[in-house]
Amino acid sequence: MTEPFLVARNIAKRFGALTALANVDLEIRSGEVLALLGDNGAGKSTFIKILAGAHPPSGGELVIEGNPVAFHSPKDAAASGIATIFQELALSENLSIAENVFLGRELKRSILGIPFLKRKEMRQRVDGLLKELDAHISDPEAPVGSLSGGQRQAVAICRALNLNARLVIMDEPTAALAVAETRKVLALTRRLAA
User: Fold this and answer.
1) How far apart are CA 119 and CA 106, in angstroms?
2) Architecture per CATH, 90-167+179-194
3) How far apart are CA 147 and CA 97, in angstroms?
4) Distance between CA atoms of 4 and 62, rounded to whole angstroms?
């Protein structure tokens, strides 16, 4: 069996007197698709936020590829290869797919000291990611506001892949989707793990 990409040992999270998580252990290996199940208020989203670097754990240890890590921000988690797609996708509906995927990380070139976007390269990269996911979206310049729920999830997954994520965590990715869209997102998830 291969070494886990991520190990969470004895993770705890307290908010004042409230214990949201206690003694949580988890191992995640490359290529696995795992589901975290529990009742509302059980701490699933809190655990995801710890893995995403949004909340520090109150106790326990996170290990990535055998090395202990301490995330102080989502940027730290991203630098370690973890991307999180929350239930609210945080996509800008008036921007194109390509602009959303590269938002805040635009490819640029400088001409006479003036920065210009490398729009063609960004479109090509997003087109390749969409094809890799078999997302059935033909135009990376389409506005996100024109997409279905499943297609929006595909854009969020592309954004995670564009960060070179090795672990993509999805918080309730199908919660607001119809049955057909849910099937598409689950198929995307399986392709992502392959």
Assistant:
1) 9
2) 3-Layer(aba) Sandwich (3.40)
3) 9
4) 12
Which 3 state secondary structure label does DSSP give 183?
helix
| pTM exceeds 0.85 | no
Q: What's the rounded Cα separation, in Å, for the pair 42 and 160?
A: 26
The pLDDT tens digits of the residues spanning 43-62 come to 999 999 999 999 999 999 99
Beta-strand ranges (E) seen in 16-85 are: 18-28, 59-64, 67-69, 82-85
Contact 52, 77 (CB under 8 A): yes
pLDDT band at 64 (very low <50, low <70, confident <90, very high): very high
Q: Where are the domains of the chain?
A: 1-80, 90-167+179-194
Task: Report domain 1-80's class.
Answer: alpha beta
| CB of 174 closer than 8 Å to CB of 87 | no
